[in-house]
Amino acid sequence: MKLVIIGAVAAGTSAAAKARRNSETAEIIIYEKDPDISFSVCGMPYYLGEQ
Q1: pLDDT in tens, 12-49
Q2: How many structural domains does the chain have?
Q3: Which end of the chain has a smaller Cβ tally under 10 Å, C or N?
Q4: How many CB atoms neighbour CB 49 within 10 A?
Q5: pTM for the model
Q6: Which residues are catalytically annotated?
């Protein structure tokens, strides 16, 4: 199985992780325009609080 995910924020990385749990042999490709991907939304309160 080949899977292409566009966008690597919370939903994209969650979809990739779920796909990996369902199939260890799947080819998963993630495209993201920013240099860093999102792996957690834990930093959102800090961002909103301008810290």
Answers
A1: 888 999 999 999 999 999 999 987 776 556 667 777 88
A2: 1
A3: C
A4: 7
A5: 0.66
A6: 42
